[in-house]
């Protein structure tokens, strides 16, 4: 898989995350690892930062269920609108996690 194909695969997977559910950056990388040979959560984060503006970016969170502070306010509004289970200042990862299947 070329770098451009990987970007497309990440964005396509993120587009499939249902409203009210989330995946971590690491889970996105893991879900694509067999096809791509890549396993970097940081790479997924970089792709989302550069190319994810049109995708439901708020559905991809860090392992503890949060986003960078500069995105947290808008993400929280989107999470509330979608009925995403929340815990503290982020997503309740025990109940909101989604895995493609």
TrEMBL record:
The keyword Hydrolase does not apply. Residues 8-80 form the Methylated-DNA-[protein]-cysteine S-methyltransferase DNA binding domain. GO terms for biological process: DNA repair. It comes from the Bacteria. The keyword NADP does not apply. CDD domains: ATase. InterPro entries: ATL_DNA_repair, MethylDNA_cys_MeTrfase_DNA-bd, MethylDNA_cys_MeTrfase_DNAb, WH-like_DNA-bd_sf. This is Methylated-DNA-[protein]-cysteine S-methyltransferase DNA binding domain-containing protein.
